[in-house]
């Protein structure tokens, strides 16, 4: 709960309502057609963020050596339409500061599909002991052979949240420091007499919820149903965090767009990552 409160404080400090904006200046994209606003695939989000595709139909890819590759005017036009300009609460000044930072002539910043620093957050429905439950899966890319693969890094699953409530202080049971003289026969207290066997683990004990989740699946106690939502978290731009959601709605400002933006202070990155991983 402390983590949730702190992350909201960070977001509130950086966020306020942003109005829809028109786009258009020499050398940039004009938001006057469905192409300009619809970023249909996440891979296209990467290409547009970096200015690695054509601004007219997106069918032409730009590569190192092409005159338009990583063009600042082209990037500026693309970046302006990569934000949710209808429903998000991103401060216009914060947005401008971010774009200016990304487009810095001396230190331009790009996102890279194969580089660390971004995560997928997937909401999926499962049946657990006859009841539908929603799990949050955190996935990341890792090298595999000659390519890459998505792997599950963590899971948050509501039925597991109160399984391990380790007692503290006077409420915590323990094994006497002379238990070894009894051949640890008093382990009965941990395994038979206690409802909280985790009380007898070391103080730094952290349950592995992903292993528990996979074990329950292998035991057929959890059955996969469907994915209900996907979003992505980016930490690749130094000093910034942003969140990308998919917007399916009428109009032009649709597809994969930046929904949240935070300028990071010392310690903010770690706080947000802890919030994302939500260790049950």
Give the count of helical stretches: 8
| Proportion of beta-strand residues | 15-25%
Instruction: Count every beta strand, where a strand is a DSSP E run of 2 or more residues.
Output: 7
Instruction: Quote the distance from N terminus to C terminus.
Output: 11 Å
Q: If strands are numbered along the chain, what order do they take across the biggest sheet?
A: 1-7-6-5-2-3-4
Structural class of the secondary structure composition? alpha+beta
Taken in chain order, the helices and strands follow as HHEHHHEEEHHEEEH
Strand-helix topology:
Elements: H1 2-14, H2 34-37, E1 38-39, H3 42-50, H4 72-81, H5 92-102, E2 118-128, E3 131-144, E4 147-156, H6 188-191, H7 209-218, E5 222-234, E6 240-247, E7 254-263, H8 268-277
Parallel strand pairs: 1-7
Antiparallel strand pairs: 2-3, 2-5, 3-4, 5-6, 6-7
Helix pairs in contact: 1-8
Q: Could you describe the 3D structure shown?
A:
The protein has three domains: 158 residues, no CATH class; 66 residues, no CATH class; 32 residues, no CATH class. The chain is 25% helix and 24% strand. It has eight helices and seven strands. It has a seven-stranded mixed sheet. The N terminus is likely disordered.
């Amino acid at each position: 709960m402390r983590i949730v409160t702190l992350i909201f404080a960070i977001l509130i400090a950086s966020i306020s309502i942003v109005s829809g904006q028109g786009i258009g200046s020499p050398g940039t994209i004009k938001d006057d057609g469905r192409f300009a606003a619809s970023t249909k695939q996440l891979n296209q989000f990467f290409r547009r963020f970096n200015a690695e595709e054509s601004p007219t139909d997106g069918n032409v890819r730009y590569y190192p050596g092409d005159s338009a590759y990583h063009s600042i005017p082209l990037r500026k036009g693309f970046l302006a339409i990569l934000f949710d300009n209808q429903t998000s609460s991103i401060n216009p000044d914060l947005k401008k500061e971010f774009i200016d930072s990304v487009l810095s002539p001396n230190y331009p910043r790009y996102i890279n599909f194969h580089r660390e620093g971004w995560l997928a957050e997937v909401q999926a429905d499962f049946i657990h002991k006859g009841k539908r439950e929603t799990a949050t899966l955190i996935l990341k890319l890792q090298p595999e052979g000659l390519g890459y693969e998505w792997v599950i890094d963590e899971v948050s699953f509501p039925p597991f949240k109160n399984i391990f409530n380790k007692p503290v202080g006077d409420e915590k049971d323990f094994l006497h420091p002379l238990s070894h003289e009894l051949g640890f026969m008093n382990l009965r207290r941990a395994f038979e007499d206690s409802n909280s066997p985790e009380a007898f683990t070391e103080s730094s004990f952290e349950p592995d919820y992903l292993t528990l989740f996979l074990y329950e699946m292998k035991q057929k106690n959890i059955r996969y149903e469907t994915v209900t939502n996907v979003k992505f978290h980016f930490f690749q731009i130094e000093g910034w965090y942003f969140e990308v959601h998919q917007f399916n709605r009428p109009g032009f400002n649709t597809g994969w767009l930046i929904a949240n933006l935070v300028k990071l202070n010392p310690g903010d990155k770690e706080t947000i990552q802890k919030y994302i991983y939500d260790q049950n």
